[in-house]
Amino acid sequence: MTLEQYKDARARDADFALSEEEIGRLYSLAGGVARMLPGSTSEVVLDLKPGRYAFYTNVPGPYITRLLEVTAIPADQPAEPDAQHTISMSEFAFDGAPDTLPAGKTTVNVVNEGQQAHLMAVVSEETLTADQVQQSLSGTPLPLVPSFRGSDGGIGELAPGDSGWVTLDLGPGVYVLTCHVLDVSGGGSGKGHSDLGMSHVLTVQ
Amino acid sequence: MEHQGQRGRNVVNKYGLLSALAVLTAVLATGAVACDADEDGDGEASATEVPAAEIPVVDVTITDQGYNAPASVPGGLTRTRAHNQSTLRHAAGLVLLKDG
Questions:
Q1: A152-170: per-residue pLDDT in tens?
Q2: B50 to chain A nearest CA, in Å?
Q3: Could you tell me if residue A22 is inside a domain?
Q4: Which has the closest alpha carbon to A177: A198, A196, A193, A147?
């Protein structure tokens, strides 16, 4: 598959014109870095199989992409990163996600144990307390609405069964781990996974 | 010429000796790293402690024009470090392209 064919497929996929079977024949999700704010840096560790990959983004506007050729796996493989936490993603939860973290760098092993693709974006909240965010996510009306600043990185869409590591480097504050993927797999509801409960409030102290 | 040659040989011999000492030191030092001392006296050195290889880093810069990244990387564990230098929120998601 050429990069132009891939761009064409993504354009049709954006309009939901491709079936899951068609997508499966064209490309498969392989993680990467979730959406991040301008000026920020985020990193993930993935176990990449040899093959031809493409970087992608999911921002409206001119589609940007780039090929990445992954060559043979060297015999001398490094050790896996030391993770302080393991988070299991499924429909529709982040099991094992901590409620609090110390400020600074934390490595998290993220595993997709669900039947659908999932991602873990880290979104900072500037107005509400952790309790208020939790109430808001559970549908309780509040006088204030969350003012999610935007994503501070995280790990991109992982196919079922895949995993990776994300290094979070967060300052003190309230954050939400969330999944932006739509529930369209297998005749799903069409709602965002976050709207179906796939969010977790995290306080960094 | 002979004097210079003699001098030269002496120099060679002097540096040859230093080189030999350096090699011996390096071999001993390497041995110390590769094999721990026989501390329990059973005649067998303990397991070799080999420094782990570093996870290779792929730096990806995102601009309003596209991605700047290396064309290829070795497979296996890879650290992807994305820098968003664009004016918009962006991801550096990865998909594996299928043949055909």
A1: 789 999 999 999 999 999 9
A2: 11
A3: no
A4: A198
CA of B3 vs chain A CAs: smallest distance (Å)? 53
Q: For the purposes of burial, counting CB atoms within 10 Å of the CB of B85, is it exposed (0-12), middle (13-18) or buried (19 or more)? A: middle
What are A80's two structure tokens? 């896996």
In chain A, the residue whose alpha carbon lies closest to the alpha carbon of B64 is A64
Provide the number of structural domains found in chain A: 1
For residue A81, the chain B residues in CB contact (below 8 A) are 55
Instruction: Report pLDDT digits (tens) over A189-199.
Output: 888 898 898 99
Residue-range domain boundaries for chain B = 1-36, 54-88
For residue A1, being part of any structural domain is answered with no
ipTM for the complex shown: 0.88
Edge-to-edge order in the sheet of strand B90-97:
A100-101, A199-204, A173-178, A118-125, A148-158, A27-36, B90-97, A51-56, A65-71, B72-74
Res. A101: pLDDT tops 80: yes
Q: List the CATH number of the domain containing A38.
A: 2.60.40.420
Residue A62 lies in a domain: no
Say yes or no for a CB contact (<8 Å) between A28 and B98. yes
What tens digit of pLDDT does each residue of B20-58 get? 444 444 434 443 333 344 444 444 444 555 566 899 999
State which residues form the domain around A89.
29-47+82-204
Please tell me if residue A35 touches chain B, with a CB cutoff of 8 Å.
yes
Say if A92 falls within a structural domain: yes
Residues in A touching B78 (Cβ below 8 Å):
45-48, 70
